[in-house]
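Quick note —
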Amino acid sequence: MRAGKAAQASKSKNNMNYKFCAKTDTGRTRDNNEDSVAYDESTRLAVLADGMGGYNAGEVASGMATAFIKSELSRWLSEAGESAKIREVRRALEICVDNANLSIYNAANSNSHYSGMGTTLVVGVFRDDKLLVGHIGDSRCYRLRGGTFEQITKDHSLLQEQIDAGLVTPEQAANSSIRNLVTRALGVEEITLLEVNEYMVELGDIYLMCSDGLSDMVDDASIARIALEPVDLGDKAGLLIEAANERGGRDNISVILVEVTDAAEKKGLFARLLGK
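Predicted structure written out below.
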């Protein structure tokens, strides 16, 4: 998806209202956009991918990933309905990503132009008051809760392994020459490993999924300040992309924002406006 999408909302059965917004931008230095974003508000699914590979292969890989996962997983979620258990949703997510991986891998091995293509991935499924986050590579998911901004995924990258081993400090990592070397990717090998984590969702939460075109250019503190701005999701997304471009925009920039509000409050407001 190359253009920004308007914010849309979906209500869960526990009166949590989920509002989605996605935007992507080529940045200041790249000729094409190898990022791809997608969401389905009816099944509360969000998918973001950052492609890699020569020719236009990165764009192909990321587009295949988001289109496949949105289509297949949203179909399963719709058919399974709200009664599906979280472990069933998790298994469906894992199977869907495995199938997307094989699809990209087979395409890369059947067309020389696409040889070696792959993509990072971060996908979120909101079910009532829970969030399942699956990721591969260094595309991230953050959570803003009560003024606290926190990265809830850990990068699958060589640099993150060095940080974990105590070989470099987070301050040194900010200027590292290997910050974009990922240790996992979708479509590069016949089998991939999706990391899946489950989180409780609270009213007022804002979730941000992004490619490294944002997180490499804008520090977490600055991202948090923008996320806290008293503007709607579309404006927040625009401000995040603008901040990355103002700092050089050296890569494609993509964001998906999800805001959790009280559906009962919204209903009450409409009732008051209608005089009911």
